[in-house]
Amino acid sequence: MRPNRPSLLAAAAAAILLLAGCGATRPINPPLAAYDRGSGYRFDTRPRQPDNADGTLVILAFSGGGTRAAAFSFGVLEELRRTEVMLDGRKLRLLDQVDMITGVSGGSFTALAFGLYGERLFDEYEGRFLKRNVQGELIARFLSPRNWSALWSGSFGRSEMAAELYDEILFENKTFADLTARPAPFISVTATDISTGSRLGFTQGEFDMICSDLSGVPLSRAAAASSAVPLVLSPVTLNNYGGTCKYREPSWMRQFRDTDKPTRPAGRALQRIHELDAYRDGANRPYLHLVDGGVSDNLGVRGVLETMESLEASRALRRSVQIDKLERIVVVVVNSLSVPRTDWDKQERPPNDLMILLKATGVPIDRYSYEAVELLRDIVARWDTINELREAGAFANAGNLALARAVDVPKLDLYAIDVSFRGHPDPAEREFLNESPTSFVLTDEQVDRLRAAAGTILRTSPEFRRLLDDIGAQKAAPTAARP
Asked: Which of 32, 70, 102, 320 has the smallest count of CB within 10 Å of its CB?
């Protein structure tokens, strides 16, 4: 069994000092010849899984957190694989009902790998990634003299070297074109534009803004961008061809800009539209430098929040996505946030500068992660209350017509399921999980217990149990993680 290792930031400090200034990566994203809403890797054009039921939309959000996040999110996939539900009169696995997976940093590896391999991942992921010393292999490459000339060349950075390793051990040089043709959940991994602080998703819908063809982008480069921890790994650079492909935004998006007939306020959605506008100016912003997606959204749930708010605000969007055909939306937030205990408050001497840096960068991210889950729960509660009032006839009389229009939300069941360490029923296990470091190497025991914990937390979640009660479910016997 491997000993536990320090965090990736601390372990790579020597490499950073040695290779300071060696950070460039050459852009490899090709231009888009012409905007075509019907082509490329998009949610509504991908092949669906054969057993995916029409009336249920399931979204998984995989957070950041290195191998801890990768193992914890994988444990959720394993539990969904064991769970059978009755939909459309058929007994189906809940895993096959997953329509979308968002991934950030460590969670992006599980998301992309499942999108690429599907069932094959359950046999190979443990050996290829989870129980591999990825961190040690990265540091060894950074410190190897034979790689120094490339790193000092100005066109080859640490993240590019990391992407090469990710291809060797996991992604096999596949690109988003390989995801486009495969029946699987839609995978959306995100990185942070360090110039503006906004996020950029590796989907054709967002690459349309920069007039780039996502199909030619390697999956390893998306994973490298989403997990490019500042200072430890170099930014991943993309060419911005924005303004060259005759992009046209959808009509529902233009509705938010209409000052004569303004859409009911949807602040996050409108802010997101303004952020995307900035990507369309390739002449003045010819390059985008991307770092860890956790800097802007460590849960991968901001896009879900903005979409929910947009659906609530825009009838045009609801018609566009045909939301009236849905019976339920299920959002599972897989949050691998760990909060190791410290003894700083017991000592007169304050922590050192590195400790303060780690804490100062992590606290805002952790606080926003908590707020994001609560905002999602607020939306669920609001929609449930409005639909209950509607069913009770509260908006039926003429005096309430204006109010009825103001609270026009989709008529469906909405579930927000939080899978985080604090949901584990065993205090001792919660303490163990919270001591798991943010690194790309864990002991075999840590990996196994993270996977098992994910299943336990999901199974015992009150909101998950409500979902299963509502649709009818049968559980297969839990399968223990292999030693």
From this structure: 320
| 121: amino acid identity, one letter | L
Beta-carbon contacts of residue 227 (< 8 Å; ≥ 6 apart): 64, 66, 105, 106, 108, 109, 162, 233, 292, 293
Tell me what pLDDT residue 351 has: 65
Name the burial class of residue 406, with classes exposed (0-12), middle (13-18) and buried (19+) by CB atoms within 10 angstroms of its CB. Answer: exposed
Task: State yes or no: pLDDT of 332 exceeds 70.
Answer: yes
Query: Could you count the other beta carbons within 10 Å of the beta carbon of residue 149?
Result: 9
How many whole angstroms separate alpha carbon 105 and alpha carbon 227? 4
Q: 3-class DSSP state for residue 274?
A: helix
In sign, the C-alpha dihedral spanning 428, 430, 436, 440 is positive
pTM of the model: 0.86
Question: What is the rounded distance in angstroms from the CA atom of residue 4 to the CA atom of residue 41?
Answer: 39
Helix ranges (H only) for 280-352 are: 302-313, 315-320
Strands across the sheet containing 83-87: 90-93, 83-87, 473-475
With contact defined as beta carbons under 8 Å apart, do 269 and 250 qualify?
no
Task: Between 362 and 279, name the one with better pLDDT.
Answer: 279
**Average pLDDT of the chain?**
82
Q: How many helices (H) and strands (E) does the chain have?
A: 20, 11
H/E stretch holding 328 reads strand 328-335
97-125 pLDDT tens trace: 999 999 999 999 999 999 999 999 999 99
What DSSP assignment string belongs to 368-436? HHHHHHHHHHHHHHHHHHHHHHHHTTTT-SGGGHHHHHHT---SSEEEEEEEEGGG-S-HHHHHHHHT-
Structure-block tokens of residue 209: 């803004």
Question: What b/e string do you get for 197-214 counting C-beta neighbours within 10 Å, with b at 16 or more?
Answer: ebbbbbbbbbbbbbbbbb
Backbone angles phi, psi at 242, to 5 degrees: -50, 135
Nearest alpha carbon to residue 18 among 230, 290, 226, 232: 232
CB 416 within 8 A of CB 380: yes
Question: Is-contact 333 377, C-beta < 8 A?
Answer: no
Q: In this structure, are residues 335 and 63 in contact, taking their beta carbons and an 8 Å threshold?
A: yes
Residue 333 β-bridge partners:
61, 418
List C-alpha distances in Å: 64 to 184, 194, 227, 229: 22, 17, 8, 11
Give mean pLDDT, residues 66-91. 93
* Pairwise CA distance, residues 452 & 461, whole Å: 14
Which residues are paired to 413 by β-bridges? 328
Q: What is the Cβ-side half-sphere exposure of residue 456, based on CA atoms within 13 angstroms? A: 17
Question: How big is the chain, counted in residues?
Answer: 483
pLDDT reading at 173 higher than 80: yes
